[in-house]
Design goal:
Largest sheet: 2 strands, antiparallel
Helix content: over 70%
Number of helices: 19
Structural class: mainly alpha
Number of strands: 2
CATH topology of the largest domain: MetI-like fold
CATH superfamily of the largest domain: MetI-like
Length: 385
């Protein structure tokens, strides 16, 4: 089977997964009172214009949601709205709006477009940490089996499985506050403001970040970053290197917390895969031909152990993404995960719940498709299966 045929087949499998998630969400959303769904999907009701304006608003919402149609028609309209990115509006007086006022009344797709770069920056940093730690440490643990480095790797792996991310994040946050208070770091005026949040951030570097919501021109409302949407990159583009450094530093600890659990999973599989490969015949043949131990480990054992590693990395991606709502809320990082956590708190915002759920589903499924394609490229036997 050619690679492009394999890729197309994998992409087609994306459709039933998305429809399944949307159907489950539709069943849950159908239990919501109609008045609440009006606000979530159609925006706030008009304050002026009297009964005529209100009737026009209700007619528009009924047509948009198909609430005057049979349930299967509503389901079809719901799927059509989903695939055309008509995900509704952010409501008023919700927990999400209270935390991030700039999103009030905006389209859900617009808000997610503003916040997704924050989550992607955190995700990419976490992924880099996972790969830089898990791959070399797993290989060293296999090569130096039952030696001190293997014992260290085992402790990291067991603790990563045992300690939940929200507990580890809370402990790290408390430790950061205690360090700031103990050393009385210059430029810090309130310990929790120094370690919480993307923006506003008081910052422990004098002049590094805006205070009292005095945002630079390229950062509207504290969340809309221009021109790229990525705050760290945009701060560097505008020559504000201290802001870029402060923003990056704020993501390091959350990224470490998110990465720790995935490192525990990946490290174990890298170690076991490496041990299995090193006992195969072609490894003994390479050694018998006089290849150095470094060459055997890097070129032969290392490359052949990547297949299982990539598969496990794809399987753990959902677990990896699942930690974002908790960690972003603990550290008050303005990302998609935090908005999902806030929208699920009373008063609810069902438009944001629906939009973030679909977005995370798309990210996880797309990531697994990328992993499958990379796996098929490394091992042609997958395409033939």
């Amino acid at each position: 089977m050619r690679m492009w045929v394999y890729v197309v087949r994998r992409l087609l499998l994306l459709i039933p997964v998305l429809i399944g998630v949307m159907t489950i969400t539709f069943v849950l959303v159908s239990a919501i009172p109609a008045s609440t769904r009006y606000i979530s999907y159609c925006g706030p009701a008009p304050l002026h214009g009297g009964q005529a304006a209100l009737n026009a608003y209700l007619a528009h919402c009924n047509k948009l949601l198909g609430l005057n149609q049979p349930i299967y028609t509503q389901w079809g309209i719901y799927l059509a709205n989903t695939f055309t990115f008509q995900w509704g509006h952010v409501g008023n007086n919700t927990a999400a709006v209270s935390a991030v006022p700039h999103i009030q009344g905006q389209l859900v797709t617009t808000v997610l477009g503003w916040l997704l770069p924050y989550t992607l920056e955190l995700a990419l940093l976490s992924l880099v940490i996972i790969l830089l730690v898990a791959l070399p440490l797993g290989r060293l643990s296999a090569v130096y089996r039952n030696r001190p480095i293997d014992q260290v790797a085992r402790v990291m792996s067991f603790s990563g499985f045992a300690i939940p991310s929200f507990l580890l994040g809370s402990l790290a946050l408390i430790a950061m506050v205690l360090v700031i208070q103990h050393f009385n770091l210059a430029g810090c005026s309130g310990s929790f403001r120094e370690v919480w949040g993307s923006w506003p951030a008081a910052g422990c570097m004098p002049g590094s970040t805006p205070r009292n919501n005095d945002y630079p021109a390229w950062l509207q409302g504290g969340i809309v970053s221009t021109p790229t949407g990525f705050p760290t990159i945009d701060a560097a583009i505008h020559g504000q290197w201290l802001i870029a450094a402060d923003t990056l530093l704020r993501m390091i600890v959350p990224a470490l917390i998110i990465a720790y659990g995935s490192i525990a999973v990946l490290l174990r599989f890298v170690r076991n895969s490496m041990l299995e490969v090193m006992n195969l015949d072609f490894i003994r043949t390479a050694r018998a031909k006089g290849a150095s131990e470094a060459t055997v480990i890097k070129r032969h054992a290392g490359r052949n152990s990547l297949n299982v590693t990539i598969t496990i990395l794809g399987l753990t991606f959902a677990f990896f993404i699942g930690g974002f709502p908790i960690i972003e809320e603990v550290f008050q990082l303005n990302g998609v995960g935090r908005i999902l956590a806030l929208s699920a708190q009373q008063p609810y915002d069902f438009g944001l719940i629906f939009g973030t759920t679909i977005l995370f589903t798309m990210i996880v499924v797309s990531a697994n498709i990328i992993v499958d394609v990379v796996y098929a490229f490394l091992d042609p036997r997958v395409r033939l299966g």
